[in-house]
Each structure stands twice: as structure tokens, then as C-alpha cells.
Prior knowledge:
The chain is of the alpha/beta class. The chain is built from 13 helices and eleven strands.
Amino acid sequence: MRNFTCVNDIGDLRQAVSEALAIKADRFSMQHLGRNKTLMMVFFNSSLRTRLSTQKAAMNLGMNVIVLDVNQGAWKLETERGVIMDGDKSEHLLEAIPVMGSYCDVIGVRSFARFESKEDDYGEKILQQFIRYSGRPVFSMEAATRHPLQSLADLITIEEHKLTERPKVVMTWAPHPKALPQAVPNSFAEWMCATDYDFVITHPEGYELDPEFTRGARIEYDQDKALQGADFVYAKNWAAYTDPNYGKILSRDRSWTVTAEKMALTNNAFFMHCLPVRRNMIVSDDVIESPRSLVIPEAANREISAQLVLKRILESL
Ligand code: CP
């Protein structure tokens, strides 16, 4: 595997999960793969889990790790061509990317949607420039439209906890005070649609995601109806995708918060969220603290998903 940006890059999902579980059972047995290899993690946005889990995964594989927070301590970067750089940005991404590539063997990039231009966000402008100009394998640590390391960890978590071969998985929109990108829900939908699970998405009208990611999913506007019989409830907020409301908050309706009453509609479902989560906006305290909450094992599996991806990339070098 050269680059990892979406579900198609990982190949057969059963094989990927099986490989991930083998890594989880013995995560230090492949240190020869990363010896004298350097991972550079480039963050244009904040992170807790991605930063720590990916660094830990690289260390498990014997790699050296360099972390760059672009907005803290680095020169401010211009990302557009043709701009007369007479403002506060001292360096252009087109020089910075190959320079970064010269110091490492593999690059991870986190670059969220900016909600300034849907075309730029959905063209994955920053991530694609790293792939094109770094000369190194590149993997997404959450880009504008997808968060594949999270989705792989989510898939591993569901496979570890499912009680039936074909569980009902419901992704529900929930309220949030800020406009959040669609990367996590797009990606989760894309990965769930690539399985044979019974996958349902529920959200208020106006929050339809890009059909490229949801093709194959059932869309249900009545949250209570969607939750009936669910084995897994995956909560997430996202801002509107469809024009003319791209990037806007259309609803703050707290009746969509995942509460114990909502979970009572399900088949004793597990609760999932990628974290960080706003308690009592997305999910009530009692649900996230309940024994059916998988948020901590889900986050722990981020180490495993990152290690699988890094292993596959190192094997291809
Ligand atoms: N879920 C996730 O990616 O967490 P961070 O934003 O903290 O990395």
C-alpha cells in the first residue's frame, strides 16, 4: 500500500480486520520493519487520539517519529498558487512539502475542511498536494472529507463486539454548538457501506451527506424509528453538506441527543463516538458512562488501525 486515504486503499476488509487483530495480540513483533525509518506527522489541526495513537503505533514498529504542528512554531504556510506573498505567510506549501519529504520515509497529514470552498474541501487540496509533491507515501490522519484511520478502528471495534454476523449499525446526527466537518460521518458511512452490515443513517432533513459516501445506506429522518433494533449506535455531529448551506448549522435540536430513553429503543445497543465528544449535547452522561459505551476501546483501537496502515506502507517501501 503506497497511500492510505480511503476504504479502497485497505483492500479486503475481512483480511484487514484479521491482520489488525493479529497486530493487537502481538504488537511488538514487527520492529524490524520500522528500523531506521522515520514517520513525519504533520498537523494543520488539533488532535489528541490521532497524535498519540499514531506515534505509539510507529514506535511499536520501531520507527522514529517527528511531529510538526504547522500552526505552532512553523512558518505560516501559503497554500494557494499565484498569491503575492506580501502578508503574514512566509513559506509556500509547494516548497515546504518536498522539504518535509526529504527528512522522512512516510508522512501522515491532518488537514480539516475549512468551509471556505466546498470545491477545495472535497478536492482534498492539501492532502493531494502532499501525495503529489512529497515523494513519500502519505496517509490521512483526517482530511477534509474522510477520516479512514478512525473508520478502520470503528470497524475493528464493531467486529470485536458484534453478537450477530450482520448487526444493525445506526449512525445518528446529534447537536453541537460549532459547525463540524463531514469527514467522520462520510468516512464511517463509506466503510459501513463496504461491509454487509444493516447500515442506517438518521439525521434531520437538510443534513444529507454526499451520496458518494452513503450509497447503499438506508436514510431515515425519524431518529426513534432508525434506532429501533439497533445493535450499534454511532453518534456524530456534522454541518450541512448540500448547497446553499454547505458548512452551516441548520439545527441545534437537543431532542436528537443520544439519551438513555433513545438507547432503550435499541437492541441493547453499544454506543460509539470517535471522540472528542460534547457531553449532554451529543450524548448524555449516563449513556457514555454506561457499560454499553465503547468509546474507550474504540479510541484504543486507533493504535491498532494506525499500526496496520503503517505496517502495510513499510512493507511496500
Ligand atoms: N477521533 C480523533 O481523531 O480524535 P483526535 O481529533 O483527538 O485525534
